[in-house]
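Quick start: read one record
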Amino acid sequence: MPNKHMKVMVDTEDTPGGKSSPNPQDLRPSVFHSIKFFILCHSFLQLAQLMISGYLKSSISTVEKRFGLSSQTSGLLAAFNEVGNTALIVFVSYFGSRVHRPRLIGYGAILVTLAGVLMTVPHFISEPYRYDHTGSVDMPQDLEASLCLPATDTPTSAPSNSSCSGYTEVQHLTVVGIMFMAQTLLGVGSVPIQPFGISYIDDFAHNSNSPLYLGILFAVTTMGPGMAYGLGSLMLRLYVDIDRMPEGGISLTSKDPRWVGAWWLGFLISAGAVALAAIPYFFFPKEMPKEGHELHFWRKGLAVSEAPVNRGEDASSEQNSGENPEKDGLAQIAPDLTVTQFIKVFPRVLLRTLRHPIFLLVVLSQVCMSSMVAGMATFLPKFLERQFSITASYANLLIGCLTIPLAIVGIVVGGILVKRLRLGPMRCGTLCLLGTLSGLLFSLPLFFMGCSTHQIAGIYHQPDVQPGLELFPGCMEPCSCPSDDFNPVCDTSTGVEYLTPCHAGCTRVVQEAPDKRQVFYANCSCVAGGGPVPAGSCDSTCSHLVLPFMILVSLGAALASVTHTPSFMLILRGVKKEDKTLAVGIQFMLQRVLAWMPSPVIHGSAIDTTCVYWAQSCGRRAVCRYYDHNLLRNRFLGLQFFFKTGSLACFTLILAILRQQNKEEGTKETIPSPGLQQQLLDSGPKKEPEESRV
């Protein structure tokens, strides 16, 4: 369908006052008839759209704490935008250029904006966050609510139990339902943005400029996920209820495990950026005059070396387009089909494309790699928070400034190697194999970079540490401690953590820091010397390993990203020419269905199995408070290792198939031909598989 459009535009461009531009003198001065301005707008839109899509992943642990979600539920939430996207992306190849593409992109951007605003609604309809879990909503936070009180004062825990009403449960379900609805809307709105934008640029840019424009577009938009993590790092430093702070402020630091950052603010900022980027699309025409000249600096650099090649390509493309007009692929014949005919034809073309062994293996390898990326992008911030006792803000900063830039560098390096070395299929497969193997080797030391969970009184006891803490220590028997309270304190001398000051036997608040955020408790019967002990969890003994860990993760990501471009080349050269457009679409669809949708749920379920203490909310299991760090590290990194191994196995099989095909070619060339008749018989069938052979 782009070819059909392109021919029309070329013809009208050559004839002054063509049909597509009835008043060329009126159209030329308009900035909305410039393909360069469209590229500028589209780069900004895709940047903002990827920022809003990736922002939830940067604040996933914060959303879990705020609304009491398990990692499995939060993983499903993160993957839910793929549901709406996958359901509609197939029809993009059907509609193609039938529709007003810029306007449809604008409508999609408006849906993305609405989805971003809808994601913030749970914050505004929920009651203010109470980190002390006691008292009514309009009362200030109570520092003494978690102290050790005599058994006769049991009514202190009544308010938290009385808050469990039918209304509370309905409100929780409403909040979660709104977030799932917003994620679905986000996926639906994202459908037309990238495909229609790329096809619009390719249709109306000069043939020589189109690759440069698309390269600029991809280079700008790949910064979107990095900016999402950077935005998350900034927003999570702010308190969640910054718009409705309690009286007297808060007595929390960002290192406190009860801290919840302003997760919702990033969605508002991203949605505002998408809304601004959507405005110009309603002024772009359905068709604009095709760009009539090549960029000067591009021509100066490449005219001498590539002019003959370009002329040859143009001639061959014209020849190919004129040879078999009936044998165009589904993408070309789609405009002539009705919706029902398109739905009937699509499964047959899908099965025909999947019969190519190279295509199938490359897609499977990319599914494995995408599963690894989806799991890491969603839960790596949470893993770093738990494993190394760092804040959510710092975890996002490390990912946004280290991992994602190095992954982008890896993609660029892979493209340069394919271009400069002019790698054929065999060498592309070798490069993919080496990149995957190197990434796998870099992930091995990660299994040993971590430490066990520190000792938690009544919950977790390290086997190699001195015994002496029973399930319920006798030192807190006089106290009446609420079972659902969470206000951890740390005995820094022994490295033992207690769920609340009550569980440590503390009876009073003894000291506050000058900024009133760091609180200390004293008269603690379970602590040697009676304290004081600071509020908050004990620091990890291996927090110094976070930077070496992230450097290894980032280097592994960069090496794995080198496979991106060569694997695409294997796909493009592994299917018939008329099926290339659809093959790329099928590849993206299978990645979404088999990787981006299930992988966050799989990783979240694996993380949930390592939990040693669940918070309870109205009798249901809510957020996990403590994990077994060794199990968490082994299972999370084990899943990553499993997917990398699957990708390595696929590339190994690809190389074996390519080598076998090369051997068969060599034997056919060495066999002497028995006669002219046999040669004629052999030459016929050889031409047909030549297109589908890699």
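The mean pLDDT is 78.
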